[in-house]
Amino acid sequence: MLTPQLDQFIRRMPKVELHLHLEGTVSPRTLIELARRNGVPLAATSEAGVAALFNYRSFGEFLSVFMGLARAIVYGEDFERLAYELGLELGQQQVRYAEVMISPMQHINRGVDLREAIEGAMAGFARAEREAGVTVRLALDYGRGYGTEAAWQVLEVARATRELGVVGWSIGGNEIGHPPEPFAPIFAAARAAGLGLMAHAGEVVGPASVWGAIEALGATRLGHGIRSVDDPGLLVALRERGVVLDVCPTSNLLTGAVGSWQEHPLPRLKAAGVALTINSDDPTFFHTTLTEEYRRAAIHFGFGADELSTAVLTAAAASFLPHAARTALCTRLAAELSALRAELAV
Ligand SMILES: [Zn+2]
């Protein structure tokens, strides 16, 4: 239940977000301005028109709208603007640390220089960090539908931009027809390069996709992973190996991955002892924010201050920051959370 005290706690509590796509945070207004400046035609030309595109009936429809609109984002300065605006927004929500994904292939295929995009994004995040106090790092989320061959050149850029703030490697896009196993050699190379490993899995495909992500790819974090609930043996494996599921509840409802709040597997995953974090995925596209996801977890899943604090600390511990920075983040968040809980008596 969302009491006024809990609502205040949610607004003020320090947060961590691990599952957030940069392209999915652009506001309709910024998108329209970028499209105009870059001469890219969009399917709508007003803010209301763009917002109206965000009504999907399936995951496939969501992906095609997402990719169509992302075409407006072209130059390093575009990525810088997106990153800066996102950083300010995260700071307002009391997010202390975020890992943000860029989907490289849809940009590369349009002739975008990936290194320029990464440099731009990190410049925007650095500016936001100075103004809003939020630290942001990047992960490259390779679209599995583009096949394994092209992944090697993207991984090369990830390796070369580690010093700029690229900390993670992921696969995303449509799981259907694109199982994780063929990406195993790329994940092994990403790990050798010092990148943290995650994978979108168990969102629209069942446990087989999750097994592949943890066994063949060695992913320590899963985007969504909610279909793991269909395999008791998998739940045991996730718990014993400490694999973290980055769950994005509203996203699951709006893409049709889950039929209703009552059917959402999160409470059953939690009861099985699986480590969970709460995230917004594509906040603009799903009309949500991280704060709103926390509120919905309180309303629909009965999360209180204990569960929400655990989600934040789980996210901090599962981040791909270097060990010392990760430990410092956990310590800082634990202190901030207990001070706020004492103040608000929650
Ligand atoms: Zn995602």
Describe the protein's architecture and organization.
This protein is an alpha/beta fold and 346 residues long. It has a single domain (4-344), classed as TIM Barrel (Alpha-Beta Barrel). 51% of the residues lie in helices and 14% in strands. The chain has 16 helices and 8 strands. The protein has helices at 4-12, 28-38, 47-53, 59-70, 76-92, 104-108, 114-132, 151-160, 184-192, 207-215, 232-241, 249-254, 266-271, 290-301, 305-318, 323-344, and strands spanning 15-21, 95-102, 135-143, 166-172, 196-201, 221-224, 244-247, 275-278. The chain has an 8-stranded parallel β-sheet with strand order 1-2-3-4-5-6-7-8. Helix 15 packs antiparallel against helix 16. It is globular, with a radius of gyration of 19 Å. The model has no long low-confidence stretch (mean pLDDT 95). The structure holds zinc ion. The site of zinc ion has 6 residues, from strand 1.
Keywords:
alpha/beta, binds zinc ion, TIM Barrel, about 350 residues, 16 helices, eight-stranded parallel beta sheet
Question: Which fold does the CATH topology refer to?
Answer: TIM Barrel
Our Rg estimate from Cα atoms comes to 19 Å
Helix content: 40-55%
Write the CATH architecture name.
Answer: Alpha-Beta Barrel
Largest sheet: 8 strands, parallel
Ligands and ions found? zinc ion
User: Got a strand count?
Assistant: 8
Nutshell version of this structure?
It contains 16 helices and eight strands. With 346 residues, the protein is an alpha/beta fold. It has a single domain, classed as TIM Barrel, CATH 3.20.20.140.
Please specify the SSE layout and strand pairing.
Elements: H1 4-12, E1 15-21, H2 28-38, H3 47-53, H4 59-70, H5 76-92, E2 95-102, H6 104-108, H7 114-132, E3 135-143, H8 151-160, E4 166-172, H9 184-192, E5 196-201, H10 207-215, E6 221-224, H11 232-241, E7 244-247, H12 249-254, H13 266-271, E8 275-278, H14 290-301, H15 305-318, H16 323-344
Parallel strand pairs: 1-2, 2-3, 3-4, 4-5, 5-6, 6-7, 7-8
